[in-house]
Amino acid sequence: MIHIQYFGALRDQLGCAREELLWLGGTSDDLLTQLRERGEPWFSALQADRIFKIAVNRVLKHDIVDIHDGDDVGILPPVTGG
Prior knowledge:
- By secondary structure, this protein is of the alpha+beta class.
- 24% of the residues lie in helices and 30% in strands.
- The chain has three helices and seven strands.
- It has a five-stranded mixed beta sheet. A two-stranded antiparallel sheet has the order 3-6.
- A hairpin with a 2-residue loop joins β4 and β5 (59-61).
- The model has no long low-confidence stretch (mean pLDDT 93).
């Protein structure tokens, strides 16, 4: 089981801030793919062509990372601005 927290506009689009998910192991990309496969609004909110930041156990990662059972995962939407 992993614990997921959604931040910012992503939280609003998905209509949830947190959830627990049965996890058999894999990477951050695997997690995003699994969430997109739920259909709408997940597919649109987590579009594959957008870049999401992932935090694992409160450490922001800048690349694809392994996620393990028991991890706390934060998904942050792409940020724009200048």
